[in-house]
């Protein structure tokens, strides 16, 4: 691959995106995806590629330090995994060829953008710093790739990290960004109430865990509505409940599974504590036992205000003020939050809603779609923003 112009690079990015979309792989299984990305980079003359124990690919595009004694490093994340969904887009020549697997969250475009950024910056002659491209596995499910990449130390020397995501809730040709907290932390839990079985006609002879679980669910929402500040967005949802073996037997064992969504670390810890406390209290009052298991997922993403300002300036110059959306915080999650915990971060969205092309469906839908030009718009803004951030941090006086 000989890249002599940005136009040629765009064609190569589109070709890579189509290949990734047609051959999606689930979290933890991104073997062919890694090979395709690695081959794309090798063919562009990039051979300093590291594959980490967690399955990530790392590319450092190095340049000399200037006006500083320390090399500034800016990271760009591309997530590689797909979802267990059957694609329903027969209009796309590059639709998934893998039954039951689909890029329904735009990770094919994120990886293609990151690969294009690696080639673009590798061809720059006056790059003042280091661009580290991270191709990350397993954003969608445990074990989360963002957590693993951070634990392997790849973000320890990072000055700033950039994440980009397709967004079907704003029109094609526009971009969006959120001030401060972008997403929520996503924790899950399982809770089992253990009681005593009895005949359904004599409930007082047993300990009814379905009744106890019902009481817990009702009281649970009081944690949000009565014990959490109104300006602290939080959600607790029960998605699964299981118990009982017959309609006339008092259930002695009921299991619940749910999710806790919070923003600030303080609220996250406090709500976790209160949910456990409520489970123990409800069980005790009714003479049952509770067994609570919490799994901490991805933390919230928090945008750095200075980087947001840089992004807004860059987006307005490149697209125009009318193409920029200042979005409200989301209660969804992304394991980019692990990077956000370690260094200053910028996470932004590029719009892909386009009724003319049938791209009107939400993320994780079997009909979700992204036009190539929308991806390229995200690519252009990613490299422009990275250049501006690198310039500003490199020229800033050392403290």
Tell me what the structure shows.
- Strand 1 and strand 2 form a beta hairpin.
- Helix 1 runs antiparallel to helix 3, helix 5 (209-227) packs antiparallel against helix 6 (265-285) and helix 7 crosses helix 9.
- The mean pLDDT is 94.
- The strands form three sheets. This protein has an eight-stranded mixed beta sheet, with helices on both faces. Strands 9-11-7-12 form a four-stranded antiparallel beta sheet, covered by helices on one side. It has a two-stranded antiparallel ribbon with strand order 8-10.
- With 399 residues, the protein is of the alpha/beta class.
- The protein has helices at residues 6-22, 31-43, 107-122, 145-151, 209-227, 265-285, 305-319, 337-342, 372-395, and strands at 49-51, 57-61, 73-79, 130-136, 160-171, 175-177, 185-194, 198-199, 234-243, 249-250, 253-262, 289-296, 324-326, 344-353.
- It has two domains: 6-183 and 300-395, Zn peptidases (Aminopeptidase), CATH 3.40.630; 185-296, Alpha-Beta Plaits, CATH 3.30.70.
- It has nine helices and 14 strands.
- The radius of gyration is 24 Å and the shape is elongated.
Can you lay out the helices and strands and say which pair or pack?
Layout: H1 6-22, H2 31-43, E1 49-51, E2 57-61, E3 73-79, H3 107-122, E4 130-136, H4 145-151, E5 160-171, E6 175-177, E7 185-194, E8 198-199, H5 209-227, E9 234-243, E10 249-250, E11 253-262, H6 265-285, E12 289-296, H7 305-319, E13 324-326, H8 337-342, E14 344-353, H9 372-395
Parallel strand pairs: 3-4, 3-5, 5-14, 6-13
Antiparallel strand pairs: 1-2, 2-4, 6-14, 7-11, 7-12, 8-10, 9-11
Helix pairs in contact: 1-3, 3-9, 5-6, 7-9
